Amino acid sequence: MNKTVICPGSFDPVTLGHLDIIKRASKMFGKVYIAVLVNSSKTPSFSIEERIELLSDAVKGLDNVEIVSFEGLLAEYCRQHGVDAIVKGLRAVSDFDYEFQMAMANKKINPELETIFLTADSDSMYLSSSMVREIGSMGGDISNFVPECVHDRIVKKLKKN
Ligand code: ADP
């Protein structure tokens, strides 16, 4: 489908769950932006530069994927950059309320903008960045949770925090 979509998130840090959604979106759509959101109400463990660098390595080889970062309204960014839809992964019913609310709000701001939900893969539906941070910071094994090419860097950083 020759559409442009965007996968937004904090990616603090990237997980195999994120990567699954990004890979599936890149097969379905012509262009996929990954938006690393600068959220002033959250204090991230990884700086914006680190999150972008880890993501860039994780998506190497996916030619229609581009990483962007911005502060402000996602729906406005989509309007300005010709994005047709937001793609999000749905892990469990617990994600649904919040995601539904966000999708409605974004549609009010930008009526042209659709939100598309992909069901999380059964192997990674329990996975979140916060779980990776928690396990990693206590020295636990996170090799099943993050892309192999960025594993060592994530482990090193989490141990320092
Ligand atoms: P997290 O919720 O892990 O802190 P983000 O806010 O960075 O992650 O997530 C960005 C988006 O990536 C989420 O809104 C969700 O759509 C998707 N996502 C995150 N983790 C998973 C997962 N394990 N499986 C599928 N999609 C996921």
Short description:
The protein is of the alpha/beta class and 161 residues long.
Percentage of residues in DSSP E strands:
15-25%
Bound molecules: adenosine-5'-diphosphate
Query: What portion of residues is helical?
Result: 40-55%
Question: Roughly how many Å apart are the termini?
Answer: 42 Å
Count of distinct structural domains: 1
Task: Give the CATH level 1 class.
Answer: Alpha Beta
How does CATH name the architecture? 3-Layer(aba) Sandwich
CATH superfamily: HUPs
Instruction: Detail the poorly predicted runs.
Output: none
**Average pLDDT, to the nearest integer?**
95
Radius of gyration: 15 Å
Structure write-up:
This protein has 161 residues and is of the alpha/beta class. The protein has one domain: Rossmann fold, CATH 3.40.50. It is built from six helices and five strands. It has helices at 16-28, 48-58, 74-80, 93-109, 129-137, 148-160; strands spanning 4-9, 31-37, 65-70, 85-90, 114-119. A five-stranded parallel sheet has the order 3-2-1-4-5, sandwiched between helices. Strand 1, helix 1 (16-28) and strand 2 form a beta-alpha-beta unit. The mean pLDDT is 95. Bound molecules: adenosine-5'-diphosphate.
